[in-house]
Amino acid sequence: MGTAKPLQVAEVLRTAITQYSDPLAFIRELVQNAVDAGALTVDVEVDSAGTEHLVEIRVRDDGAGMTRRTIEQRLTRLFASSGDDDPSRIGWFGIGFWSVFALSPVAVMVDTLGTDGAWRVVFETPDHYTLRELDTQRPGTCVRVVLARQGSKHVEALTTRISEALEIWCCFAGATVNFQGKAVNRPFSFDTTVSVLGTDAHTQILAAHPRAGTGHFALYREGLTLLHDNPRHEGIMVAISSSRIHHTLARDQMLCDVAYEQIIALADRVVRRRLCEEVFAALESHVWHPPKDPEDSEAMAAWETSRDYLYRAATWHVRRGHDRQTGSDERAAFRSPAGLAIGLSACRRALSRRGAIYFADRRSHLTDALEDQGQLVIKLAAGSPEHTLLGALDDRAHLISVHDELCMPKPVESRELKQQTRRLEMAIAQLIVDAGGELTSVVLGHFDYPDSALTGEVFIIQQHFGDITRKQDALGRVEELFECTQTLVLNLDHPGLRALTDLAQHEPEYAAYQAIKLMLLSANSTARIPPERDANLAQLAVTRRWNRINR
After folding, report:
1. Which of 211, 208, 222 has its CA nearest to residue 86?
2. pLDDT number for residue 21
3. pLDDT tens digit string along 268-279?
4. With 315 labelled, which of 89, 402, 416, 433 sits at a CA distance of 20 to 30 A?
């Protein structure tokens, strides 16, 4: 049995063991020590069997054990870790082991098998230890931290906290880390739709957009966590594992030296270029490969989830200009209602020419007409992820909903019906001119067809019949009926005008008079036509009828 010996720099030791923001960080430190010792497996256990007053935390590894000289000159001396001569090892400051005292244990025991035999070190306080030789010991090192129980639920709460700590601090450890017999570490990857891994001789940089939440930023060395959940950019997850990263003496902060700044700059480039390119490549594939069976609810749900994720990720890059820097804006990000592929570069060109982009949630007669004219039309719904991405191109851009904001009357195709409408068209034009108005022409067309924004309207005014016109510019211009010099287009599908078309075959002047009154009243059903105007129109219609009959 060895004798109790005072440790060196006791006051510095007390300061060192209180530096950790999380007292359970000692779990990380012990795993780090095991990795430094070449361990392939580290087993962590919480054991309260056999006693009602104590609970034991065990950390056992199969790495290289310690000799008596190592124990006396390294383990029991602050700032004298075996990592002193090897900066690639995590524990090069030599204070990691002392974090076991952060929980004020009853005792700490270290059993280790070195080349000169098996040894046990027992710490009853941080200031003193005893050392003795063992007859046998499993290969590697086992550290046992004995705590006093604090209530009936203490063991359960402690087990949960250690499990959570291992998930945070040791998730990417190079050695297999088990807790209560179950592996807690996993491959260096993110469970996301898109992620990229950038590497060099000393560094791995993993970047992705989170499925949900704001993202995070984490630093690792030898796969063990140095810094966790401190986001640099909202909406991005970045994990960096590098042998060039060093922590400060405070352990919870990084040494911001030249190497660190270079690594951070490299990570920013990975996000800005590699991740952006990968996002838009995945988005292009998504655009071209919708589910083959729209009735397959499971496939559609998965496709919608992927769609939301990819457009949200693409929007993040567009708002920072990454797509233009990488050329990703040439990839297909949308499709037109007719199925044409459209990239963000084409959208920007359309915005620079017109300051607006057309969109529609389905194909229609109107979208086909726009595409035939060479206009850019995006297939999307208002408020959709696609709509958000399109809006990110330019905050000042106007996005025009084809079916809500545009209108285009269809021509009458039946020759017989054209002949019938011609009499009413001519009679209306003549009566407006007689009343002092100016018109290029009067044309009847179809307003009531699927996806038409003109259904139920009586008339619009256009530059030329059949133009695609902004609805707000074509409607509500009753006051201009006798003043405009454009084309007056009437809705042949309106029941009143359809009846007047039949009437015009025998009484064109009277039909024209009634049609103009219908137009004047169409904007406001409670409006009244000034008696003078009504009387004037009636007199003009009677006079023209008299002249026609008595020619």
Report:
1. 222
2. 64
3. 999 999 999 999
4. 402
